[in-house]
Amino acid sequence: MLTTAAIEERHQAELKQADVDHNTPTAGAMIGHIMANLTIQRRKLRQMKWSAKGIDNGTFKTQVATLLTENDMLLDKTAERLLDEGEVIPTTQAEYTEYGMLTEDARIKYWDVPAMMAELVNDFDTANLFVSRAIKLAQKEERFALATDMIDMLGYNQHQIRVLQNQLGKDAREGLDEEDDD
Known about the structure:
Blueprint: H1 4-23, H2 27-51, H3 57-84, H4 93-99, H5 113-140, H6 144-167
Helix pairs in contact: 2-3, 2-4, 2-5, 3-6, 5-6
């Protein structure tokens, strides 16, 4: 059993390493951001499931319930992989708030279903910025299991974007990629 002093020593070493990892990004640090985004997305999905209204809300709520289940599986798989790699994972609300890049808005509960879908598209697209970076870092660090998991997550996110965009009557990348100013 660890003493209070030993626990504090380990915690301080973890904080110091996290600071180093985030200043010179590592795959583990980048994936910590992904875990934070998944945690924020979980709250947003719950908010949407609880408050979606309109003629198409039943179908959307079923879709969101599936996304919630898949989000939880991705979060657990990601945490387990990081632990397999000897990484310390974010576990507190403070860490998720610091590392997360998805936005939250209490007003979502008043949005219509298409606005909620558009928000999910933007969240998956934002998440992919971190996932793509994590893939490159993991490959550079020769952490191939991490890279493989992140490649799988990138594919999952891209699929969700396409499905949601199609439901909104759009092509997969419509409105997401910056237009060239030629």
